[in-house]
Amino acid sequence: MTIVQDIEARGLRHCETTALGVLLRHEGLDLSEPMLFGLGSGLSFVYWDSKSMAFPFLGGRVKPFDLTRNLAARLGLTLTVEETTSPRKAWANVAAPIDAGRPVGLQLDCYHLDYFRSKVHFGGHVVAMYGYDEQDVYLVDTDQQGGAVRTGRAGLALARAERGPMTARNRSFTIALPARPLSCQDRIIPAIKHCADAFLTPPIANLGHRGIEKAGKRVPGWLLRAAEPQRDLPQAALLMEKGGTGGALFRALYRDFLGECAQLIDDGDLRAGHRLYAEAAVLWTDVATLIAKAGESGDAGHLEQAGVILHDLSRIEKDAMQVLRRCASTASA
Known about the structure:
alpha+beta; 7-stranded antiparallel β-sheet; two-stranded antiparallel sheet; 12 helices; 9 strands; 52% helix; Lantibiotic ABC transporter; DUF4872; BtrH_N
């Protein structure tokens, strides 16, 4: 058995921040999960639907691995990424860092992991790996999935090699701190500005505040869109609240990030943005509750009500990001 020493196998709420936390704590940098999420400019929104999809998808974060790239660039971290189509090289890419005493991050499809109770394909899942033996590998996943867990090496190989939406070719990565680490506090405003700019000026109507407005128009028709409403709608609601989002489709994480920032930086616009995202987080939980009720009861009235709230959320989040962008512009002037 090969195990990296001094690993704090702490599962957090979101998979990518969980893995980042493991890797960074091992390097000597311990940041809260909201701070990891916010410094990585992780908040976003997408309404994703196509004829090939069984049911629409509501996403509340940036694309898988963008958060990691953003965080590394912002803090001056050395991010070493390996990808390959070779199973032999894929294993070597993770075994080598672990043999050298460093944990490694993996992007994979969670469907093939032994410990996952809900068997759903999702190719953007991220875990930290810190050990292996002849049969199993030792991982850190979200708190919801058990934190410190293990899975068979054969299943891990399938998970890493899976192809489909959001997958990567056996992607693995390590992180190293710079010789002179940057001040996290100094990077807060650039991170907020980056997130606000992307949210306010999305290239297509499915993203950002425009995407939330589109969801407000489409969600009321979900009973007709769903092949099995009693399954599809509660599952969509579950993903919004419990699917590694930290609750409220990641808005609770961003609210808490802004709350931490407001304690470090004295700025009225920053505090206003925090208040608006506190309001938004509650409303996103209300939307998820209404979607679940609609699936369970077949009552379209719940979806109509959810649509009204989504229209309000589009406005609230647009206002919040405009305030936060102003804060960023003032602070960087």
